[in-house]
Amino acid sequence: MAVTKMLSEKWEIKDRNRFLFGAVLPDVYREGNTSHESHLKMRIRGGGWVTYDLTSFKERYGKLMEEDSLYLGYYLHLVQDLVYRDFVYNEHHWDPAAAGNIERLHNDYRLLNSYIIKKYGLRNELTIPGDFEKEPINALYSFEIRRLNDDLKSDFTAFSEGNIFFFTKEMADSFIGKACEICGKELEAWKKGECFVDAYDWAWKKRAESLLETTLNTRELGGYRTRQGKMTKVHTLLRSDEQKQLSSGDIAYLSERQITTIIDMRTKKVTSHLPSPFANRTSFAYHNIPIEEGSGVPESVEAVPVSYMKIAGSANMRQVYQCIAQAPQGVLFHCSAGKDRSGVVSAILLLLADVRDKDIIENYMMTKECNAKRFALARKNHPDMDINIIIPREEFILRFLQFFREKYGDAGNYMRSIGVPPEQIEMIRGKLVDTERKR
């Protein structure tokens, strides 16, 4: 409310009440729900980052944003929340995962309300538009409007329980100033048909988690932006470590997303004593395409990028990409740890999609977080091994990308050189990139 009041004083807003109402509305989500839907929250960059889908909002309500202050206010709330995430996570290193921190932060808000109300001259004068249920914004989410007046009354009531834990008065003033500045720049850009806040670059990092219940390192290749501004498709290509068993939840997850082709790159020696649980399931097409290179531990840290080039040049690698191209639906490919062989295939696929190196490196490094338990176990069971060889490092993938480009130029040339026909390369690109939308 403080940010919106300051913006409405500086910028020409057609209807200040509707502007304020729109700015409050995203937080009027239903009791027991989260704010995911009302904020158009989405995971991107392989699922390891979260942002708000500003593009979708502008596609749906862009015309109304020009005519109706409610929709402009709603949009700027989403922008403010991106600024807020950057402010608390990056500038002030807030840890929401620590036990009790979320509750303490919300208590800070309640303690600060009286200070903010007085300093910024706020009044509880918000009016709910008549016949709100007929507003087009209701197609986005079913808002709990009946609770709004009670919530506002509570926010405007002095609160004094406990002490400030993290979010101080100085931080509140600093955030309000920053949010006003960024929202102002976004308004300037919006009036020119442009944008200042890029939701992709303003995303915040989440703890990396496996998509399957029974693995440590099953992740997306979807949600990455290409250099052309397109996005890689979600629920289409998954990278993974081995599945020693499958839960009903895992089967449901893959089936619901039509991930029906499984490519197992483990060697025959491994699959003979650790067979894949997909092998005898008729609802999945299982392919064991063994990649011998990368099945062992390189002799040194310096040898890791070289081993990745050997993986890329493996005799069976052509079959991996052809299998991806010919798969009727989505594909899950995996090795043992989902690190080296899966990491090389993932990097090459993202190169083919023309994803930025920064994101390719990030996708590779998420394995370090996901496989933390696996690396700890390796350290315990193999105390004489140089653990630095098996733990992902940025320099490993950077050197691989350098070697790869020196030898092949780009991913298309690479695939042609190993025998993947041009039409199948295009089929893989079609599986990788969402050609309809930019972000």
Summary of the model, kept short:
The chain has 439 residues and is an alpha/beta fold. The protein is built from 17 helices and 10 strands. It has a 5-stranded mixed beta sheet with strand order 4-6-9-7-8. Strands 1-2-3 form a 3-stranded antiparallel beta sheet. A two-stranded antiparallel sheet has the order 5-10.
Q: How would you explain this protein's 3D organization?
A:
Helix content is 47%, strand content 9%. It has 17 helices and ten strands. The strands form three sheets. A five-stranded mixed beta sheet has the order 4-6-9-7-8. Strands 1-2-3 form a three-stranded antiparallel beta sheet. Strand 7, helix 9 (268-273) and strand 8 (285-288) form a beta-alpha-beta unit. Helix 11 packs across helix 17. The longest helix is centred in the N-terminal third of the chain and has 23 residues, at 69-91. The chain is elongated. The model has no long low-confidence stretch (mean pLDDT 95).
